[in-house]
Amino acid sequence: MSVLARVFEAAGLTTVAVALVREHAQRTRPPRALWVPFYFGYAMGQPDDPAFQHDVLAAALDTLRADAGPVLADYPDDAGPIGMPQASEVAASANGGAGNGASGNGASKPLDAADEITALRSYYERWVEQRGRSAVGLTGVPQRRFRGIIRFLEAYADSDDADFDDRPADVSVPQFVRYCADDLKAFCYEARMNQRPSDSEADVHRWFWGETAVGALIDRITQRLNATGDTRLQATAYGLSR
User: Fold this and answer.
1) Which of 175, 234, 220 is nearest to 23 (CA)?
2) Cα-flanking dihedrals φ and ψ of residue 33, to 5°?
3) Among 65, 109, 166, 194, whose Cα sits 20 to 30 Å from the Cα of 93?
């Protein structure tokens, strides 16, 4: 983002960026940026709300009024994470009803995230077979070894001492946790979209965060990292449950 902005600015084009991760904008220092507290994929806020989206655009363009840069402005925190409901909110709403877990057949919520991944595998593999592509792959770990990733995340949910044998040496443990969470989310979402093709994006999101053991595990890690008070770990947690 910041590299492209500087190239455009050098060519005489004024740029304004919208950042979903404040820490990235702080480090890369684009000429002008507006940080928004929204879910990934919702840089302008919730779909089908043009008035709100225009307000976000106006706030971004207001950074042009600054006399000097780089400029990093914050969209009001009280706007909340527009788009999808927070994981904790979804889980709370699901607690009163019967979840359908990985199988989607009305069974109770699985207690073991590794078994859940195994149950979803055939749906995921059909998704890849039909489409020839997948968002899974950040970790470099084949999806048939994801049970090992689950066991690593379960250990990390309790202790910073946990590690994964095949973690790349140039990737820190917290960053690898983020990669693992992203791969698991992509795996589960793609499996669910094959299993329930008529479900909306919001339906899949509510299922993942409200009814799956994998979603509960990622949320547990998020809460532990946020409670540490360590800004670096909190930055990692920021992207986990989104």
Assistant:
1) 234
2) -150, 150
3) 194
Among 37-46, 71-80, 206-215, the range of highest mean pLDDT: 206-215
Alpha helices in the chain (DSSP H): 2-10, 22-28, 50-61, 87-94, 113-131, 146-156, 173-195, 201-211, 213-227, 231-240
Query: Over the stretch 162-221, which tens digit does the pLDDT of each residue have?
Result: 999 999 999 999 999 999 999 999 999 999 999 999 998 888 888 998 889 999 999 999
Compute the distance between CA of residue 161 and CA of residue 171 in angstroms, rounded to an integer: 15
Q: What are phi and psi of 74, to 5 degrees?
A: -110, 130
> What's the rounded Cα separation, in Å, for the pair 197 and 173?
35
In 3D space, the residue among 223, 219, 185 whose CA is nearest the CA of residue 204 turns out to be 185
Which amino acid, one-letter code, is at 184? Answer: L
User: What residue spans define the domains of the chain?
Assistant: 2-79, 87-240
Strand, helix or coil for residue 33 = strand
Q: How is residue 112 written in tokens?
A: 């073991």
From CA 160, how far away is CA 31, in angstroms rounded? 36
Residue 205 CB partners (closer than 8 Å, separation 6+): 84, 85, 90
Question: Which of 181, 190, 237, 191 minimizes the C-alpha distance to 214?
Answer: 181
